[in-house]
Amino acid sequence: MSRNGPLALVFHTLFVVFMAAPIVVVCLVAFTPEGYLSLPVNGFSLRWFRAIARYPEFVNAFWVSLWLGAVSSLIALLFAVPAALGIARHQFRGREALSALFLSPLMIPHVVLGIAFLRFFTQIGVSGTFPALLVAHVVVVFPFALRLTLAAATGMDRSIEMAAVSLGADNWTLFRRVTLPLILPGVVSGWALAFIQSFDEVTMTVFLAAPGTETLPVRMFLYIQDNIDPLVTSVSASVIAITMLALIVLDRLYGLDRVLAGHSDRGR
Amino acid sequence: MSFLELDSVSKRFGDHVAVEDLRLSVAKGEFISLLGPSGCGKTTTLQMIAGFVDLTSGAIRLNGRDLASVRPAKRGLGIVFQSYALFPHMTAAENVAFGLEMRGVPRSERETRVRDVLAMVGLAGYEGRHPRRMSGGQQQRVALARALVIKPDVLLLDEPLSNLDAKLREGMQIELRQIQRNLGTTTVLVTHDQTEAMALSDRIVVMNAGRVEQIGTPQETYERPASAFVSQFLGKTNEFRAHVEAGSGAPRLVAGSCAWPAPAGATGTVTISVRPEKVGFAGDGASGLEARVTTRIFQGNHWLFQCETECGPAVVIRQNSGEPQPAEGEGVRLVWRAQDMVVRPGAGAP
Amino acid sequence: MTAAVAIPAPAAAARGRAPWPLLVPALALFVAVVIIPLVLTVLLSFHDWGQYKGIEPVLILKNWQEIWSDSYFHEMFARTFRIAALATLITAVFGAPEAYILNRMRAPWKGIFLLVILGPLLISVVARTLGWALLFGGQNGIVNKGLMSAGVISSPIPFMFTETGVVIALAHVMMPFMVLSVWAALQRVDPQIENAAVSLGAGPLTITRRIILPQIMPGVLSGAIIVFSLSASAFATPAIIGGRRLKVAATLAYDEFLNTLNWPLGAAVAVLLLLALVLIVVSSNALIERRYAEVFR
User: Fold this and answer.
1) Does A151 map to a domain?
2) Which residues contact A155 (CB under 8 A, 6 or more apart)?
3) Are strands B31-35 and B203-208 parallel, antiparallel or unpaired?
């Protein structure tokens, strides 16, 4: 394949700079030794990272996000794995419609979902509670868990399952000993992607979170509305660092382009 | 009484008829091939025997018992799939042991039987290896071992050799036949390769578009094809249009400048079918079908001749006996014994 | 997301009844927690509201009439879709070529830059938008401060609380979706086609215009649909960059719900946004399918 000429490479470099600049800036400013927004030209300092400890609402919000992300992804998987197996294995009337329904949260604006959940939860009296927030997150991360699990389930050689059945395996043994080990990479990636989506979600959560169930992005957003100071940059930088770590792990395990695009061209 | 019986089995997918009124009785220990082009219904039939596809009508009986009431997991059949379908996350030994595990065979007995069957297929020492670290031929043997170790009533093979290269395939065919003879397992093989079917089977079921064209031994189906399809699918054949002349004396079968005594009951226009290897060359002046050699191809142990005859194109195969053969452009006469040709009513397929 | 989520068909078509036991849990979840709340929201938009009486569960057209007649809402929706359209344009113009360039790279660069460009999708939108506020915000913005102290400009480039700022920040946030969509389309393109064109004598401009562009256009268009709908319903970025006075649909709904407490009006705005987007997405999809189906069938 022909390679890129100099013009293309210049464009590409500028593009990458454009994409990276805001993120790099946030990380740089987080290390500023000054008491106000500035680049760390006079040396790097961890003062704003240490300052996070003095803001328990950020620390709490972090744990809420972590817990919410882990549990909602797990619950989403419990619904997604059987659904994926059902859709992947069988041709039936309404299959397309059902899949569209399950993937619909991707199409519905999160602001609409936030409002809908707020209304619904208020009507049944659970507004502002953690379980309610959990349910909302399960719904929005479900399509991500489903998509990856579905890709793994359809990519699996069906005759392997038939072989196991012909050798005498009942349904539960089939799932436990053959199907699950085979789709496990897809399931784990589905969980990881769902976790990240939940962790970063702000638009819907801002409608649902009450003090005590605030997630980290919501806390950051509300803080920024009042003022922007290096504290929120150090929090952001920490979040970015954790995400980058998760990204690299995900890429190593499964391939990031496969996770995001549903397929890979890197021959894995 | 037959061991495996397919009694008027039919399968319909919506409007599409995949298998129509299949009747087959398989004796215990017999090796049967379902042979036909893709889409003829052979794989569907296998899937029905295995229980993964329901019958639209008819019944399948194993040892007298109707299989309709038996779930696939309980049928006790050994299946080798076209893609081998090995469990990629298990070793060869674990793959082979799986069926025994499902039957509750104790561990020590399992290990012995797994080792023995892997040795039988020539994979002694491969117990701990994973499928991805094995060649296609080795994977195929593991799949076979996995199907055989459970001592199945019937062994089902779905185009098991189609993914192997030609040399390997020939070797595997011989081994497969030996193993089957030693074990005496009733076997049903699905294939589109007629040489494979003829090499391995006691009897061949030739299928086309869901229907059975002929059931017979390899020799029967080859030398006495029951229809144009069978004669053209199994090996090559020459077809000439001929007609029966009734005149003074016995009726004669006439094609071009040749004539033979007409077979009993033949009338009107008929088709003569004769295999290329049954056709010989006679000199230009002798009696026989007038022809000219258009192309001559050397194939090692035999010669292939394309000829234009007074009755249309023909193919002749002569063994490379060392004797001189007709050259391209040469005029010849084609001859064959009357008993080597098959006469069928009608004008035949073009 | 719509084009990229085509459901692959099962290999052995075991046609028949749906496997209900496997599907019922997820179906029940969706009916209870997605369909019902959405229906309730639509109903809410028909309710009445007053500052002292709160929400009155009747069915009237008051909120819809308000949106229909008040030019404030027209302006707001126009602004929302204008911003979304501009952001979409920018991502298309810059994201498509970048996807093409990426595709032509060799490993390991291809993988590395894919990570760099797609990775931000997994970083919170708040952090990314914060970066833009830091870069261009008023006097203290890094770039502005730098340019001013270097004497290049005398007053800061206006960015915060302007539409331009929101457009640029949104384009940045949405860019990975466009790159991803065009990238996915490129995977289906036979690389030999370009070579064939070259061997027949086509120059680079012709190849770009007549060979490459038509083939990636479906990817660009489906990416555009995704970017447009996400931008029109964006919340955090317009809130942070646009501020309190520059309202788009999502921030207005938020305002009504959490500040004014006029839930029915907020619901009406949200439902209208949803309807508009569904209409745009479905009709665009249909157009694309019809126009490009022949190419890729």
Assistant:
1) yes
2) A186, C8
3) parallel
Q: Are B86 and A164 in contact (CB under 8 A)?
A: no
Strands B57-62 and B31-35 come out as unpaired
A265 by DSSP, 3-state: which?
coil
Least CB–CB distance from A119: residue in C13, C37, C234: C37
- The distance of C12 to chain B (nearest Cα, Å) reads 10
Residue pair C71/C158 in contact (Cβ under 8 Å)? The answer is no
Give the separation between CA A248 and CA A85, rounded to whole angstroms: 28
Interface test with A, best of B43, B75, B79 (most A CBs within 10 A): B79
Structural fold of domain B237-345:
OB fold (Dihydrolipoamide Acetyltransferase, E2P) (2.40.50)
Cβ-based interface (< 8 Å): residues of B facing A: 50-52, 72-79, 81-83, 85-89, 98-99, 102-103, 143, 146, 150
Token pair 């997604």 is found at A80
Q: What is the DSSP letter of C106?
A: P
User: Is CATH 1.10.246.80 correct for B4-232?
Assistant: no
CA C249 from chain centre, in angstroms, equals: 14
User: Helices C213-232 & C71-103, crossing angle to 10 degrees?
Assistant: 140
Which residues of chain A carry a pLDDT beneath 50? 1, 263-268
What pLDDT is attached to residue B284?
67
- Decide if C200 is inside a domain: yes
Q: For chain A, what is the domain count? A: 1
pLDDT at A1: 42
Note whether C120 contacts A117, CB cutoff 8 Å: no
Task: Enumerate the residues of chain B whose CB falls inside 8 A of the CB of residue C12.
Answer: 52
Q: Does B87 touch chain C (CB under 8 A)?
A: no
Name the 3-class secondary structure at B77: coil
B146 and A167: CB-CB below 8 Å?
Answer: yes
Burial annotation B4-34 (CB, 10 A radius, 16+ → b, else e): bbbbebbbeeeeebbbbebebbbeeebbbbb
Q: What percent of chain B has pLDDT over 90?
A: 58
Residues of A in contact with C258 (CB under 8 A): 207
Question: What pLDDT digit, counting tens, does each position of C200-246 carry?
Answer: 777 778 878 888 888 888 889 989 999 999 999 999 999 999 988 89
Contact between C118 and A101 using a beta-carbon 8 Å cutoff: no
Name which of B242, B238, B194 is nearest B214 in CA terms. Answer: B194
At A257 the pLDDT is 62
Put simply, the answer to whether C26 touches A4 (Cβ < 8 Å) is no
What is the residue range of A153's domain? 55-261
Q: Which residues contact A24 (CB under 8 A, 6 or more apart)?
A: C131
By the 8 A CB rule, do B43 and B66 touch?
no
pLDDT of residue A32: 85
CATH, residue A209:
1.10.3720.10
In whole angstroms, what is the distance from residue C104 CA to residue C106 CA?
7
Give the pLDDT band of residue C295 (cuts 50, 70, 90): low
- For residue B87, give the DSSP letter: -
Cα–chain center distance at A263: 18
Phi, psi (5° rounding) for residue A127?
Answer: -60, 135
What is the percent of chain A where pLDDT is above 90? 44
* Domain residue ranges of chain B, discontinuous segments joined by +: 4-232, 237-345
Rounded to two decimals, the ipTM of the complex is 0.83
B94 phi-psi bin (left φ>0, alpha ψ -120 to 50, beta other)? alpha
Is residue C107 included in any domain, yes or no? Answer: yes
Give B280: exposed, middle or buried? Use CB within 10 Å, 0-12, 13-18, 19+: middle
Cβ-defined contact of A22 to C135 (cutoff 8 Å): yes
* CATH number of the domain that residue C245 is part of: 1.10.3720.10
> Are C14 and B13 inside 8 Å of each other by CB?
no
The pLDDT value given to residue C93? 95
The residue with tokens 């256009």 is C217
